Fold each of these.
Amino acid sequence: MQLIEFLHETQAEVRAQMSDGSPFAEMVFSDIVMQHMAEIGMTFEPVVCHYKGQFGAATLRLSGYAMSDDADQLDLFVSLYDGVDTLTPVPDAVTKTAVEQCLRFLSLCAQGKMASKLDESSDVRSLANSLQEIYNGLEQIRVFVLTDKVAKAKSFKTREIGGKSVRLEVMDIERLHRHWSEGKPRDELHVDFAEVSGSPLPCVFVPGDNDDYDYALTAIPGEALRFLYEKFGARLLEANVRSFLSVKGKGVNAGIQSTLRNAPGRFMAYNNGIVIVADELRLGKTLDGSTGVAWLKGMQIVNGGQTTASVYFAKKKFPDLDLDRVRVAAKIIIMRTQDSVKEEALISDISRFANSQNAVRQSDLSANKPFHVEVEKLSLSVYCPDGVGRWFYERAAGSYNTLLSREGTTPAKLRALKEAIPPARRITKTDLAKYINAWDKLPDIVSLGSQKNFDKFMSSIAGPGGSEAPLPSVAEFKAMVAKARIFRDTQKLVRPMFQAFQANVAAYVVAVLADKLGDRINLDRIWTRQSVSPELMAQIATWAKEVNEVLHRTAGGRMISEWAKKPECRIAVFGATYSQPAKDIPEVR
């Protein structure tokens, strides 16, 4: 798909998610881009939080934020959205202005000057209070400008705010398209070791005996690894294990830091090293004339994230640390297969076996589980009631794009394919887990974020003793789609109703609907009509207002996004009193 076509599809997705006449297109765009960034491992679980205001003569702006579980890494987002349908440049001066407005907001929060200027009931006030509390403990801060235009500069010089380094990046429509078209988060990671280390890295290169991969063994200088993490951040880590690692002195990380400080020359002997996958490798000559790794494209660390992050944060904590003597053993696997689904499965297996002694997140590692394989088969064979359309279950990341490329070989075929299986009917593994857990009255689990919610979902569908549960039937697949439709329509409905925390409200109101009417809702009617009735949506809107009020009333000053993760919040919401359901809802039996 060409960039201009991608722009048109992105704008269509924004408009499709908006209610008629909604003025919040910028929020919808921000949410779409932030969720995409979270899916590919560029950020944490994002929260839309729209704010624009004045502080003296200064203009302040914020569109959303994302925070690591340990509250030691923070991303802020500011959106420049114009709804353009042609490729339009955005001047660097405009982008920098947006950056400055977001940095001012951050600086005032860090200084404790922001919260008192905001309304006590404002969601932004709870964020400002939280930023003031955690600022001194932050290890990494980034500000992203999100835009539907084309930016010349994709990053700006790092800034110092309150004694902390803040990285500044731009996610424009061109960069977003690059990620979408390639379908892999590692596309932008090109590493020239002649530049990073002064010379190719000495290695042993072993050609593969099949078409799947080649591999090389090498040792990466500690300073080079630190630099790469500083440049690429969490994008460098684990294509299929989306971990964002903190290195506060405990467990394995404390041991790594101790070795770095006290015995840097023995680091390679004491540490297991890292495992890297890459799309391409170029060999060169080292300073002594031997074979070395000169260049990698699509580099990503699938095992050794703790080591990588520990090297980076140890140097930040102890600036006098000597990384020149540190070497980190590395096994590099160069992918050769041209089948994206096969490649995804291979990387999943590499990650799973390389991480077999550690706790590993399961979302992408689970792509080959029988449950997901069966749901994919059902999505390919079960047609909508019109006999033409289908829903698409994206079992492996990027497989929807692969389908379009493989079968949309002419403009007419591509158009027909998109009409039959539009992007709006694409469901990812983490999407499905969210829809089902919300309907199963677990909104607190959904609010934990995509990865943790997926982990809980996979545990819930496991059979006795960890065995596989029975595979879903055609009827169950149709019910899944109906639940997806309810959740998505609810998201679309609540987005313009509330300034922030719409995701939490959506999860909770779907759970309340399931609690009040779930056993009476005719899901087959929703599948047959491929829509939710206006009467049911009106009832959801009524309960959404009431759920939002309960969330704020019971939060006790805490951020809604954090309070929503607590079982106590779920109990409070289910224990509240709600208006009686309308009598004329067609789906209610």
Amino acid sequence: MTAAADTADAVVVGAGPNGLVAANILADRGWDVVVLEATPNPGGSVQTAELTRPGFRSDLCSAFYPLGIASPVLNALDLQRYGLRWRHAPDVLAHILPDDRCALLSRDIGRTAESLDTFAPGDGDAWRRCYSEWQRVRDDLLHAVTGPFPPAKAAARLVRRLGAADMLRLARMVTLPARRFGTENFRGLGAQALVAGCALHTDLGPDSAASGVFGWLLAMLGQDVGFPAPEGGAGSLTKALVARLIDRGGRVYCSRPVSEVLIARNRAVGVRDVHGELVRARRAVLADVPAPTLYRDLVGEERLPARFVGDLERFQWDDATVKIDWALSGPVPWRAQEARTAGVIHFDADVDGLADFATDLACGRMPERPFVLFGQMTTTDPTRSPAGTESAWAYTHVPHGTTDRDSVRKQADRVQALIEQHAPGFGGLVLDRVVSGPDDLRRHNPSLLGGSVNGGTAAMHQQLFFRPVPGLGRADTPVDRLFLASASAHPGGAVHGAPGANAARAALARAGLLGDAYGSAMRLLHGKLYETAAERP
């Protein structure tokens, strides 16, 4: 780096989507921003490469972005001006049951309702009612979910819109397990499986508290905006974020892992990279890394309150992931015709099967019959592979801490065998296959510790003001001017940019006209939260 680049208003550690969103928001306010990324390329879990063979583009980690296209944070950045284009498959999601019956989610609500009525007459109308309720709360709810905690303004608007009685009903719904949500709203297995399968995009099984709201949120977003993918690959979203930042004077340096956050008088003043070079921060340091990495490796436990360190010991990761990418010579020959036009496919479990899968993971067992999420990328975006072929991927969860390569390969073989059951002849289409276990995913993105992709469990005990530890639910940390900007912070995983945006807003508040008062209030609150009984007067 040149001498002029040794100091900036803000240093952002990590060029994942949250770090890039934070950097863009600060640059919009005229801040000089430097982003330091550990790997050779920006993007974190939002990257694309020709993994299987030339001409077949595979997303290294995430691929479909219902929360991305709906996110108020990303929409405010107007990334279409920087080349982002969304592509949709003809249909959104197909959930294939073990007997090959299939529930279809389409952006055409009539098609969705017709599919669900084949499982239980009347479920189509029930789905329409759920969607009508979603439309009633959609905008305020998305602002509440993606905004800083507590979401006072958005919550107040919801109360005015719904009234006290319906607000209480919404609050109850948020706590429901996906199984209970399904049985309260639908009679047939099709709609119930759609919601429970969407919940398993997190690490929550159908009987976990609050899994219902995650399943409902993704299912309603699928009905509303679909499960789109960026044209050309997930990396197109990263390219747009980087181009926008550079257009505003921001700088991104790759292959520069940060080894330490520099702290003076309990204030973050910059960072040191692994080469020993310093970058000083005049106003803030924002960290798009997992909470344990920030506090243990970059800050050091000795600089943190003892009670905070104790709470960090209880931090829980989400399940690990095994991902398989294929180059296929043709479309997947699913027995269930509805699946042939869907971008995303879930199989091969009903709600009970999903519960068995979640129980195996909770017990640390490798599931013998994995629940699979499958992506048909060329069906969604024809630029992903040559005409007449298919670039496809699948992933399944495995117990956190899985590292044995043989276990990873066996689980990938189980997944492919299940596909063959539901799509006879699939194996004959395979031109190439690449299996990525938890260690491989972490090599792509060092933040995917243990192959966990959501920055920590989505369970109730680690959400809102419990994320990443019991506290304020905000991006502020016990170190002044240091802000947590990763999926370990509220509101958690998925590509929506909210943790990065919340960290940027907190940094702006700290640097504002009332910044000293803000900083004093945060220090006081953190002191009260993490003092022990022995420290109290």
Amino acid sequence: MANHDKHDYPFDGNGQAIQAIDFPYRRSSDQDSPVPVRHPVVVVGAGPAGLSLAIDLAQRGQPVLLLDNDHRLSTGSRAICFSKRALEIWDRLGVGQRMVDKGVSWNLGKVFFHEQQLYQFNLLPEAGHQRPAFINLQQYYAEAYLVERALQLPGIDIRWHNKVSAVAARDDGVTLTVDTPEGAYQIEADWLAACDGSRSPLRQMLGLESKGRIFQDHFLIADVRMEADFPTERWFWFDPPFHPNQSVLLHRQPDNVWRIDFQLGWNTDPEVEKRPENIIPRVKALLGEDARFELEWASVYTFACLRMDRFVHGRVVFAGDSAHGVSPFGARGANSGVQDTENLAWKLDWLLKGRAGRALLDSYGPEREYAADENIRNSTRATDFITPKSEVSRLFRDAALDLAREHEFARRIVNSGRLSVPAVLHGSPLNTPDTDAFDARQVPGAVLLDAPVVRQGRPGWLLRELGPDFTLLVFGEAPAWAQSLPHVQVLRIGADLQDVQGLVARRLDAAPDTAYLIRPDQHVCARWRHPTEAAVKAALARATATAGTQS
């Protein structure tokens, strides 16, 4: 299906080489068809969300057409903080190790007020996880590894220089007009996934909008290349002497590139602030007058917390920044977009294979809208704390910071950007509520926690053992009826997998005969102390939105 060849693109080169990759335009046979060719799934936008969705669907056997109006990877570092959950998803897509090998792993953050460190925090204090809390990796590297993986899959057709210029949505599909260097052509899609970014032309063409709040403040991102012996940690300053009355964030990236975020205030001119002669003095104030560095990339942005009312509109589904947007502090943008696509991919796959109906696909909307609301809530609170807009709110903030030097309770008030964690899908109709007593850590709707396991003498990780469909995780021997459950892999802890450190049982509050039903996107959907065939089948029907539709 794919109209690309395997190319020797320098995916492992330095940042400049990666950003200079030019993906060529190639004429598609669709452009010569007398009638629009119909595709099961068309994804628009080859960013982290669009590429992740296309790879996920292709690995499930679905042919995917991926359109992008550009021919290069992202310019500048853009999103750099990728969470443990995003890495676990990318492990399943075959690119997680590449990300970790190139990225800068970190768990520790420090908070400063004026020139003094207030406290530090560890985002992953417990051992027994394969992936770190976060890696820092320039977005162009993440996109490069995803493109390379996509080029390995015959089910993905990537078309660069293909810009969607018109969309007509109907009950039975979508017609797209696509502009190319050789003129326009039309195609049809059974399903259209809009992953085309925060400004989303598709959203505008369909007359839809995002609603929310825009914060009156400007922030400068400066990526500088330098040799520095700072530890690999997240450093955040409130009102430092080198940038008084504002905030500063420092992160390390690969290739000796450091990300510095400077709060500027609202009454500043973004175009003026982006000039090197205005950036360099700010960096020198932080690093020292004699510091040697090169300015690699800069951008000025404004905080906005927005989302669409609904993510599913007929046969058009929005994911990533096209559906929702948050401020950068907290690393919630790209990470939540990747989690959107994981939620969407298996549901669309099951629908296309005839295993489930439209109700399952529609559940993507409320589940990910709920997650977006959680991200927006946390992002808004962080932004309000970082950028107080009145003297009273500033006094409250500074009082909390003063108290945080000595008191743990005050540290819980300080908000320099609550870091991204996967949403627990409380209240999802796909969950089966507990009927047995369990602890609150792995409730239905939560992502299954990883832990080390051993299979036939070989060490591994629990999440890596989960299959593409449902998994019934049983502690001890599985009932005979479990093997006949359709599209369910049965994993026995103690037989198929050895819980050598006891962490699986501890994290899942498990005893002999305990069972967990895990969705294809690795969310828990049900759990029992002593499962019955009827209970598990009912939970499966509920998790696939087929309850009441099967005889």
Amino acid sequence: MEKLLVIGIDGGSFTLLSPLIEQGIMPNLARMMEEGISGELESVCPPVTAPAWSSFITGKNPGQHGIYDFMVKRKDSNEEIPLNSTLREGRAFWDILGEDGNKVLILNIPTTYPPQKVNGVMISDFLTPSGKRDFVYPVNLLDEIENRFGNYPLYFKTPIIVTTPENIEKFLQECRNALHYKFEVARYLRKKEEAPFLLLHIWETDQICHWLWHIFDQTHPEHRKDEAKRFLPEITAYFKALDEEIGKTIHELGEGLNTFVISDHGFGPVYKMVLLNVWLMAEGYLRLKQDPLTRLKYWLWKKGLTPELLFKLYKSMVKRGIRFRSLAPVELLKMLNSGKGRLLSLRDVDWSKTRAYAKMGYGQIFLNLKGREPQGIVEVSESESLRTEIVKKLKDLRDSETGEAIGEGIQVKDELYHGKYFEEAPDITFLPLEKGYLATGGFASNRVITKDWLLKGVHRMKGIFIGKGKAISQAKKITEPRIIDLAPTILYLMGSKIPEDMDGRVLQEALTGDFLKEHPVQFAPVSTEQKIDKREGSEEESAELIERLKGLGYLS
């Protein structure tokens, strides 16, 4: 029986890791790349944690599993709810492994709360509502883990949304503690359960890149030498520790091990936001109601009363040493959340006159289509011409401050998705990420393009794929691997058949010729998957998770 270790470094990017590897800071990854395989791993579109890991789990594109972001639209409503594992369509590859007799350890993969029954152990992720103790299967295992290792680090306590020196110090300490905790638990469970398959996710890398990219990127406009002098050694020490933990785990799992180190997406700097709803409103595609309250909110918004202004004021006061007992960063986010009607939002949209709108997240534009949207007005017969018109205007978009053309990275749904949930996909996805722009929804500013006042780094399409082991090729660069290819490749390595409805393929070029000859790829007909009752969290849980996602930079 094969042994396989998969370590998911959330947001892992060669842009960040390659310099550390070249400097000798991450020798274990360097050895894996020298003696095994490596390449840039293509994410799904948009390259967001929730759809990317869902595609990793199922081997399918979002059109098949139905997850396009952290939020899922309620049927026949514009209202959205936070994602949970019961809302994802498609069998997880680890369920197939379990049915074939392989015990599995699935630790901390995003979108796995609530945990499902597996042949082994599952520990869920940061989407667990506060206070819940049911994020581990089997449930009695959590007490055993915490009695031995202390409280499980699911969340951050530090308000990193405001990057004061004090917050950065505490945040990095939390990252280091969580790193060691999760690897120790993984090794403990591996020894206890003797499972041949171990999947461990490290989330903190993503958050370091979102909030602190400017510290190790000397070209970033917010890079400050004094800040870098103080904190760059600590960030470097974190990645050195990550490499050491990887090496220690590989060593303890012993001979005959195959190892993959992967990421769900890459990372790079962000400089500005493109507020798509502001642009759609300026172009006449999105219209507001004309009732007195909406007109007042619009007037205040035009005068500058925006989340951008309020956050800048709050950040300025915090950096001057002013502390608020009753307005912690999470409370600030609640205040900025215009869903309660305080500031201009999609609640103020006149859907009877609106032809297109954008969701929070990464560049997703939806036509207000009849039969799909609750108050749709766009006829199906005119949807293609409207979509073409919007795409053409986006391609001509320029930054008014610099004159730079930023209309790139535009794709329509037909180019990206297929499957049962195709109709729910965004009609247009706009990702000018390589130029350092994040296109998103909302009315956070009264300008179409504004400085990104929250994040320092955002996702990119290319993540990492590194592998080493007895079945893995040596000293080879792999071109064009995709995240949807990992599930079928893992199943194949573990001796399972590949379901015919998976979109991914076995990455045979990553494997040795001898292994391929001895183990022909086999496929299985699509089987009826185990039915899971779809469920929503309570209103309180949903509200809390939305605020958490905002505070983590996943929702604008």
